[in-house]
Known about the structure:
It holds the Pfam family CFEM. This protein is 24% helix and 4% strand. It is mainly alpha-helical. The chain has a two-stranded antiparallel sheet with strand order 1-2.
Amino acid sequence: xxxxxxxxxxxxxxxxxxxxxxxxxxxxxxxxxxxxxxxxxxxxxxxxxxxxxxxxxxxxxxxxxxxxxxxxxxxxxxxxxxxxxxxxxxxxxxxxxxxxxxxxxxxx
Length: 108
């Protein structure tokens, strides 16, 4: 019984969401379908690929960001960006990992 009620609740919620966003829903007795807005891109296929990603050289000695600019920083600022790579989730620039570290978001 609760499954039927859950399906009905989902159908109502989908219809309300579609109507409030200007999308015209189409329905029959058991399913509700919505038409995607033209500006929305479909979700990518999430099936895993057997193709391995290319590997990159692990060359970070300070961290993935500071290595490239460390020598260009004033000597008084070099200590501010020095962090052991063991404290960063992504010590190296890797094809599987993109780090955005907040401590590098502002001026040094």
